[in-house]
Specification:
Helices cover 35% and strands 18% of the residues. With 507 residues, it is α/β, with parallel strands linked by helices. Helix 5 runs antiparallel to helix 9 and helix 10 (358-373) packs parallel to helix 14 (450-459). Bound molecules: ligand BES, manganese (II) ion (MN) and zinc ion.
């Protein structure tokens, strides 16, 4: 899918003759009416007086302007979009209101098959104009997304027509607008890339696809890409990744993509679970809904996609992304319950359930990445446990770790990006549940606190390195309903990581 063209313009809204002229308003802001440019004051006043438009979030009013008089509009349609109620003290909420408004505009444009838009930027209490623009753009581009690669187009009645062009007209000085536009576009593009990867079926997006994508990014942005194949993994004794891959005929890959800012800069290591299809293995999952397990690579997709923003923006922090990738299949040489594997670094593990495979491939990646790159901190993202859905539903990502400073940064980054997280405890007691009588540890801790015992497993492989784990099993798809998150994979985590890196200060 091609992205709409985004153009900053000083042209008058009245002169726009395209499909949809858009104005956004905060709720109950009558004084805004008089500031409204062009000849829409009358229309807006009437709509407000009648109570047909309040400016609350997801409030939309579509009008057909009359082409008469001096101040008449040439646009085919006029849209008022609500920004919700102001709260000048809550910046994150204001940013999110802009995204949601952007998403609603996109939904309406898609419904109307409106290709050419003109957007008059609103003033939003508590935000700079460039932030308003950034989030509106993010919302529009994320809301305008569909995955139709495998659907034959119906020529007579296309199910979806994306926006082609958006002209954007500022209100204020125009300061920082280019920056805001680029930031919004890059973040949205990266999240859309992650959605594309996730939407691909298990036979369309394989470990090799991750490797190819990483190579392409490396070339485009002058980053370094290394891909470990099965032979390398054997030589390095990565028993987790090899073990999970044993039942599959699809070759595994450990994809490493490195962005170097400078020698002096700190290093962040990102690890993403790239399980391209999770059948459960010998501990086979029930059939109903198993197709959703093609999304089990969303952690890897988020980590790899966010690297395209890093490559483009060149922040002053080194970022290393590692995606351990395989599918989890029950072939005849598959891992069996009772088997014992040996992870990279030497920790042995008793396999109780072959469906607890995510932690096995992450353990190797964490141990390897930490030893090789000596990062100042590590963040991993994984669709790791069904249990996190029981605890937090589809509204928040589970967050655990061994370093409160890093956790706080992620909580803040998630809040600011509209991808909220919630911290769960990770006391020592939980690791009692993964003690094994025959190996160093075992790969499940029973039903109680499934999300935490999974994290306790990962913790064994990070040593003292500041580390945080994001369990995105509840948010990677079926994410909380929002105008800018169409059904299917959400791309969650991408914008949180982008925000973490953009706002990086010495750790
Ligand atoms: N990929 C799944 C986790 C998952 C389940 C994500 C449902 C999204 C929706 C993971 O590999 C898994 O199967 N975890 C097991 C662990 C259990 C066997 C200890 C689970 O959560 O049931
Ligand atoms: Mn599993
Ligand atoms: Zn899995």
């Amino acid at each position: 899918m091609i992205l709409p063209k985004l153009i900053l313009t000083r042209k008058k809204p009245a002169s726009f003759s395209g499909d949809l002229l858009v104005y956004c308003f905060e709720q109950d802001k009558k004084e805004r009416v008089k500031e409204t440019r062009a000849g829409v004051k009358k229309e807006l006043k009437k709509a407000i007086a009648l109570g047909d438009f309040k400016g609350s979030d997801s409030d939309l009013l579509l009008l057909y302007p009359q082409a008469s008089g001096k101040q008449s509009l040439s646009a085919k349609r006029l849209l008022f979009a609500g920004l919700g109620k102001e709260d000048a003290d809550d910046t994150s909420a204001a940013l999110e209101r802009c995204r949601c408004c952007g998403g609603s505009i996109a939904e309406k444009a898609v419904e109307l098959k409106a290709g050419k838009l003109f957007l008059c930027l609103p003033e939003v209490e508590g935000l700079k104009e460039e932030e308003v623009l950034e989030c509106l753009v993010e919302g529009i581009l994320l809301g305008d997304y569909r995955f139709l690669k495998y659907k034959k187009p119906d020529k007579k009645d296309p199910p979806f027509q994306s926006i082609k062009e958006i002209q954007i007209s500022p209100v204020g000085s125009g300061k920082g607008l280019r920056r805001g536009l680029l930031r919004g576009r890059r973040a949205a593009e990266a999240a859309r890339a992650a959605r594309d990867m996730a939407n691909e079926p298990g036979n369309g997006w394989t470990p090799t696809s991750f490797a190819r994508y990483a190579h392409t990014l490396a070339k485009e942005h002058k980053m370094r890409c290394t891909v470990l194949d099965k032979r390398d993994m054997k030589a390095l004794k990565m028993g987790g990744l090899i073990g999970v891959n044993q039942g599959s005929s699809e070759p595994p890959k450990m994809v490493v993509l490195e962005y170097r800012a400078s020698k002096k800069a700190q290093t962040i290591l990102l690890v993403g679970k790239g399980l391209t299809f999770d059948s459960g293995g010998v501990s086979l999952k029930p059939g109903a809904g198993m197709e959703k397990m093609k999304y089990d690579m969303c952690g890897g997709a988020a980590v790899l996609s966010m690297m395209q923003v890093v490559g483009a923006e060149k922040p002053n922090v080194n970022v290393v992304a590692i995606i351990p990738s395989t599918d989890n299949m029950p072939g005849s040489s598959a891992l069996k319950p009772g088997d014992i594997i040996c992870h990279y670094g030497g920790i042995t593990s008793e396999i109780i359930n072959t469906d607890a495979e995510g932690r096995l491939i992450l353990a190797d990646a964490l141990a390897y990445g930490i030893e090789k790159y000596q990062p100042d901190c590590v963040v991993d993202l994984a669709t790791l446990t069904g249990a996190v859905i029981l605890g937090l539903g589809h509204h928040r990502t589970g967050l655990l770790g061994n370093n409160q400073n890093l956790i706080n940064r992620l909580l803040a980054a998630g809040e600011r990006s509209g991808e909220p997280l919630w911290q769960l405890p990770l006391d020592e007691e939980y690791s009692k549940q993964i003690k094994s009588t025959v190996a160093d540890i075992k790969n499940t801790g029973g039903r109680p606190a499934g999300t935490i015992t999974a994290a306790a497993y990962l913790q064994k492989f990070v040593g003292d390195t500041p580390w945080a784990h994001m369990d995105i099993a509840g948010t990677a798809w079926d994410f909380t309903e929002k105008s800018y998150v169409p059904k299917g994979p959400s791309g969650t985590g991408v914008r949180t990581l982008v925000e973490l890196v953009r706002s990086w200060k010495k750790f």
